[in-house]
Every structure is written in structure tokens, then in C-alpha cells.
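User: Teach me something about this protein's shape.
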Amino acid sequence: MKGGSFPEASVFFSALSADFTTAVLQIFFPIYGFFSVIPIDKSVKYIIIYKRSKTRGCFFMVSLSDIAKEVKFNVSVVSRALSENPDKHAVVKAETRELIQRTAMRMGYQPNRQASFNGRKRCATIYCFLPENADRLTADLMYGIVRAAGEENFPLKFYRGGSESDLSGFLLRMIDGIDHSGVITYPPFALTGSCAEMLRKYHEKRNTILLLNTPTNTRKGRVDAEFRAIPQVNIDEAYGGMLAAVHLLKQGCREFRYSYLEPMPYKSRIDGFRMALKRAGFTAEELRTPEDYRELANSTVRTGIYADRDVHAFNMLIHLARVGITPGDRVLLVGNDDKQQSKYSLPRLSTVHQPTMEEGMLAVRKLIRMIFGGKEKTELVSPYLVVRESSGGGPDDEIIYGFPETTESKDGKLPQELI
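Assistant: First, the predicted structure itself:
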């Protein structure tokens, strides 16, 4: 065991602003423990973050020889037991494999990914294209991606953009230029014909691309047939709307309103909300005009409102205040996204939490299996509900219903505690 030597760099960030660089270090330094910033020019920097050993204070690499000494097996046996693609003609007994894998995990072993890819004349780095949004959703997504990739010792490189040309340029480099092992992409806009064609072309050529949240980035608000062949990890948006509806029903609401921002990429959230109400024998009307707000103020019926995203819910709090309504008593309000600000609004906002950290971890694990030749299906990650003041919780309440789960099909089932 070579104390003081550095393992393969686990994460690469490029083209970062100073503020974003600081945020990255605040997020990832506690996990990885060591970093170096290499200036490329005045505006671009690479941050290389090295993973800290779980068992020692220094930085070191555990080798196959170290594990072999610990378990008292030949290095070749250890190598086969830890291989993602073991030789079919060199079988390792199940109990031996389990012992070696358990020992490797305890010792903090991580395979030298780049060395294994060098034998195939390929680069191990996974490239990620994410939106430019600087919020909790993107930060959690990056955290999940980095955490899962770090566990498997896959280097990462992040690109961020907000236009069609950004994504098109990224995909073009991936198809024809930069050597890499796979791609995770979250298109930050409604997919158009040219970008869609590049995504299909990459999938046909390499079969190592995974898409995130595709339904919310298509103009129709659903996954078109042309993308169904590409594995995806998507948030179950309709399920989130259903959670909001069932919660408001349990809170005794008998009239319901919904509101959304234009354009409407989150149509499935509203559809899920209305579907759950329909099952219970209720309907929901849109809340949009000043007259709608005045009508709500003059009503005496307990009313539940669902906003398709938190930023719209914050805006609605202002409109409701203008007609003398503070959500939490007769009128209840639920948003969607669980933005950081939702904990600090007045009243504190109940909202559907988007589990983007779990989404990022799942995406990396699926992509790694694809890199090693596996076949993957599209999966949905279920959001969960955080109940705060605006829908009847106490001033300090933060009650969670429906922890995140994944499924390969949307069955419309709700958490038992909400039924």
C-alpha cells in the first residue's frame, strides 16, 4: 500500500465561474476531502477533487495485492471476483466472491478505472450536460452524480448550458471528437428536431447515453416514441400532483384550484392533481385572473390550491395577500420543487420535493451498467410531499409523506399514510 500517492482524479469541473467554483467546493470538499484548482486561462479553471480514504487520514490507493494478502487468495482470483465482466471459464465461488467484495469495500478499494479503459484504448470519463440553473435541484443532482461516480471511481466532467446551441455543440463533440465512456444529459429546454436527431445518432453509435427528465423537456410534455429507445431517469411528475391532491383532501378541502406558469412544461403535474381529485369525486378550476382571486376571498369554503412550481407559488402568496388571504387556514397552498426558499417564505410553503440527488445516483449506476454492456430500461423516481405552514402544518413543521422510490412503470399508487 503506497501511502501519500493520489488516486485517479474522481471529478473534473470545467468552465466555472468564481461563484460556482466556491459552491462546488462547499458541496464536495466534505466528501472528497482534497482538491486542486488548475488555472487554464483567466476565465476557465479545472477543479480536480480527489477522494479521501474512509479508513486513513492520508490519501492512498488500495491495490489488488493488498486485498489478496488480506483474504489470502491469489491476485488473479481477487481480480476475477471484482471484475464487472468476469471470464465465464474462470468461475469464482459465490462465497469467495462475497468475501473478496466485502473485504475490498472495508479496505476502501476503488478500481483504477482509467487503467482498465486504457487496455481498450478508451477514456473512462463520463461527460454530463446540465442546465445553468443555480438552485437546490441542480446542486442535489450534481451531488448525486458525483457520489455514485465516486463510489465506482469513474472520472466526471460537467458542462453547463442553457441554449439549443450549447447542447448541440456538446453532443457534436461527444459524437465525433472527445474520447469518453458515456454521457448523462439533462436538456435545459424543449427539445427540437436537430438536438433530437443528435441524441438518436449518439445512441445508435455508442449506446451509452442516458437522459434525465425528458418529459419536461419536450414540447408535448411527454416522452415521444422517438426517445423511448434511449434509457432515461425521470421524476414521476404526475405522482407529485397526486400527492398534493390527496393531502388537500385529507385536510378537509372541498373546493380546489390549480395554477401554472406559461409556457407549461409541467402539464403532467396538473394532470396528476386533477386525476386524484376526479377519483375522489371532485374537480379543480384554474386560478389565474384578479377576479378569480377576489372570488376566492369572498368564499367561505375550505379551498386547496396547487401551484405547478414553487416560484409560481411565491408569486401567488403576493396575490393572495392583496385580497386578504394568508394560506394555512381556510385556504391551503401546495407548491412543487421544494426550492430552498420554500423553508423561509411567509407562511412556509408546503411543496412536492423533487429527489434529484437520488435521480443523479440512479442515472450514474444505470449508465455504468450500460458502459459494461448491460441493457437498461427507463425508470421513474417518485417525489415526496413536505408539509409546512401553508397547507395546515405548524410554524416549525416539516412532515414528509411518501419517500422517494423508483419504478419501471407508473401505477398511480400513493403512500399508505395518505390514503
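Now, about its shape. Residues 136-151 form the longest helix (16 residues). The first strand starts at residue 2 and ends at 3. If you'd like, I can walk through any region in more detail.
User: That's plenty for now, thanks!
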